[in-house]
């Protein structure tokens, strides 16, 4: 056996019933490489957005699978449904490269009975013994549904996953401190934010509003803030917890702008998380209402052009006064098509522009003589497709090895995980069933793996909260520079991971 029992996790009673064929035991590697009696055929696919380290995950799989056949599914779950795959013979050219272009990816959600039946056909057609899904929260949910379906129908094909997302919101306390892709995105953004911070006391005239990708969670923003120490950093989860309205956020940024102007520093940097608007109470209610209307009237709404759609929502919403008060480009973005998972595409909303405009207005009202010149930036795709950091390269490769071992051990419904980053690394198998919970989406009950949002009681957040007043007042920022692949600064762990795991060193040591 390659894995032995490391403990058992609980599961929601409704989940327990619906996923009766999956296990809830946590597995730890016992150091042996399992040797099945015959050659297996294993298909791997990317799902969702790219993340630094994806290609290393495939390299890890290939190395551990050895003589077994590794197939690459083209273009994500959509490609799986189409049975579009090829044998991966050589991975020597893709190690440590960015992007997911070796296979491609998409956001097709496999959950409907006819899709599950289609996968079953593809499994038979390609004689698959296992499917490995490399994805985030939604993709892991789909994987759990597929694993349960196959087990319940006696289809001998295993489903194993690897946690990937630049958003950093797939984690399970000490069992999986972070997914791969998070470190790369954060370090790319930290370099860019650091450069802009460095510019501010030189040119002494701009306030930069920088939106950072990361979808709903502010995990990326918190890490970048810890690395760069900007003048203002907004954490959506904190604003929601304290029920802070957008107007109060604008007031508080304005206070900092005016205070710094008075002390001869008419410049600064504000970090804005991608999901901010979803967390402010007035927007939350508005977005919820738009989502509900979208769900109910989907067919009708999707046929409208954007202008018609805007006026349709402007007439039909209860929160129409708030909707009408927003600039037209924000109104349009709020009613854009949802993604395949039914999510509002927050990446499309220019929150940084909205905030810069609102703060500009408030500065004018409160101190007409104060000069306020905003610049806006949105950092997104450049963070998730860069070559992986040393940490992500290591993490993704080891997750590939672990996922392959789980498959070779005949396990299904498991997520490959890695922990103990500072003491050599410990490979684990986390049961997907224990991560599932029940949620309401578009008016329907669904099984989901919840995103892990920033915990305002966590050591990482507390550190940030204790230091931000000093960062706002003075120029105590850091400009960490480009990510390093070798040398003394290469084996750094994300700061959030170091603080939250209580590590006594900030360096990883994993073979
Ligand atoms: P996942 O890793 O969860 O798939 O998402 C990563 C992400 O980059 C988010 O931060 C962002 O909101 C979204 O993808 C953008 O999606 P798209 O690739 O469809 O533009």
Topology:
Elements: E1 3-8, H1 13-18, E2 25-29, E3 41-46, H2 54-65, E4 69-73, H3 76-81, E5 85-87, H4 113-125, E6 130-135, H5 137-152, E7 158-163, H6 182-203, E8 207-212, H7 219-228, E9 232-233, H8 236-241, H9 246-262, E10 268-273, H10 276-279, H11 281-296, H12 298-302, H13 306-316, H14 320-325, H15 328-334, H16 351-366, E11 374-379, H17 381-384, H18 390-408, E12 414-419, E13 426-431, E14 436-441, E15 444-449, H19 459-473, H20 495-501
Parallel strand pairs: 3-4, 3-6, 6-7, 7-12, 8-10, 8-11, 9-10
Antiparallel strand pairs: 1-2, 2-13, 4-5, 12-13, 14-15
Helix pairs in contact: 2-18, 6-7, 7-19, 9-16, 19-20
The protein binds 1,6-di-O-phosphono-beta-D-fructofuranose.
Output the keywords.
single chain, 511 residues, alpha/beta, 9-stranded mixed sheet, 4-stranded parallel sheet
* Strand order within the widest beta sheet: 1-2-13-12-7-6-3-4-5
Could you say which small molecules are bound to this protein? 1,6-di-O-phosphono-beta-D-fructofuranose
Report the radius of gyration as a whole number of Å.
24 Å
- What's the total count of β strands? 15
Residue windows where pLDDT falls under 50 for at least 5 positions: none
Q: Kindly, what is the distance between the CA atoms of the first and last residues, rounded to a whole number of angstroms?
A: 22 Å
**Secondary structural class:** alpha/beta
Helix content range? 40-55%
How many DSSP helices?
20
Largest sheet: 9 strands, mixed
Overview of this structure, please?
With 511 residues, the chain is an alpha/beta fold. It is built from 20 helices and 15 strands. The protein has helices at 13-18, 54-65, 76-81, 113-125, 137-152, 182-203, 219-228, 236-241, 246-262, 276-279, 281-296, 298-302, 306-316, 320-325, 328-334, 351-366, 381-384, 390-408, 459-473, 495-501; strands spanning 3-8, 25-29, 41-46, 69-73, 85-87, 130-135, 158-163, 207-212, 232-233, 268-273, 374-379, 414-419, 426-431, 436-441, 444-449. A nine-stranded mixed β-sheet has the order 1-2-13-12-7-6-3-4-5, with helices on both faces. Strand 3 (41-46), helix 2 and strand 4 (69-73) form a beta-alpha-beta unit. Helix 6 (182-203) packs across helix 7, helix 7 (219-228) crosses helix 19 and helix 19 crosses helix 20 (495-501). It is globular. The mean pLDDT is 94. Bound molecules: 1,6-di-O-phosphono-beta-D-fructofuranose. 1,6-di-O-phosphono-beta-D-fructofuranose binds next to loops.
């Amino acid at each position: 056996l390659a894995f032995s029992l490391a403990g058992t996790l609980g599961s929601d009673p409704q989940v327990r019933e619906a996923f009766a064929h999956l296990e809830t035991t946590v597995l730890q590697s016992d150091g042996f490489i399992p040797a099945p009696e015959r050659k297996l055929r294993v298909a791997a696919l990317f799902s969702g957005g790219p993340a630094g380290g994806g290609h290393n995950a495939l390299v890890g799989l290939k190395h551990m699978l050895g003589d077994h056949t590794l197939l690459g599914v083209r273009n994500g779950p959509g490609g799986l449904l189409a049975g579009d795959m090829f044998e991966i013979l050589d991975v020597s050219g893709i190690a440590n490269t960015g992007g997911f272009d070796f296979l491609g990816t998409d956001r097709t959600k496999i959950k409907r009975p006819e899709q599950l039946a289609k996968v079953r056909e593809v499994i038979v057609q390609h004689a698959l013994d296992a499917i490995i899904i490399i994805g985030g929260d939604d993709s892991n949910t789909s994987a759990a549904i597929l694993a349960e379906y196959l087990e319940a129908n006696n289809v001998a094909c295993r489903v194993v996953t690897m946690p990937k997302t630049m958003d950093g919101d797939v984690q399970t306390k000490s069992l999986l401190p972070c997914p791969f892709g998070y470190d790369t995105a954060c370090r790319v953004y930290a370099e860019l934010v650091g450069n802009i911070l460095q510019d501010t006391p030189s040119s002494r005239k701009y306030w930069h509003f920088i939106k950072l990708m990361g979808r709903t969670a502010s995990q990326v923003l918190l890490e970048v803030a810890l690395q760069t120490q900007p003048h203002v950093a907004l954490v959506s989860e904190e604003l929601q917890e304290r029920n802070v309205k957008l107007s109060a956020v604008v007031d508080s940024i304005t206070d900092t702008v005016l205070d710094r102007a008075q002390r001869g520093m008419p410049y600064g940097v504000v970090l804005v998380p991608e999901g901010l608007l979803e967390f402010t109470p007035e927007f939350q209610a508005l977005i919820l209402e738009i989502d509900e209307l979208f769900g109910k009237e989907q067919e009708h709404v999707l046929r409208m052009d954007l202008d018609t759609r805007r006026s349709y929502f402007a007439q039909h919403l209860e929160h129409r006064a708030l909707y009408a008060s927003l600039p037209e480009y924000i109104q349009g973005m709020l009613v854009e098509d949802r993604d395949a998972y039914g999510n509002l595409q927050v990446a499309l909303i220019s929150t940084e522009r909205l905030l810069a405009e609102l703060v500009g207005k408030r500065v004018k009202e409160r101190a007409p003589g104060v000069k306020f010149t905003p610049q806006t930036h949105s950092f997104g795709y450049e963070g998730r497709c860069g070559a992986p950091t040393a940490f992500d390269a290591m993490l993704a490769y080891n997750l590939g090895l672990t996922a392959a071992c789980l498959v070779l051990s005949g396990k299904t419904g498991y997520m490959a995980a890695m922990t103990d980053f500072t003491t050599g690394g410990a490979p684990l198998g986390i049961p997907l069933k224990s991560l599932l919970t029940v949620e309401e989406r578009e008016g329907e009950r669904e099984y989901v793996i919840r995103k892990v949002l920033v915990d305002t009681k966590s050591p990482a957040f507390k550190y940030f909260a204790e230091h931000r007043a000093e960062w706002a007042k003075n120029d105590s920022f850091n400009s960490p520079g480009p990510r390093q692949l070798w040398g003394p600064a290469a084996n750094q762990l994300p700061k959030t991971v170091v603080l939250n795991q209580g590590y006594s060193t900030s360096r990883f040591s994993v073979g």
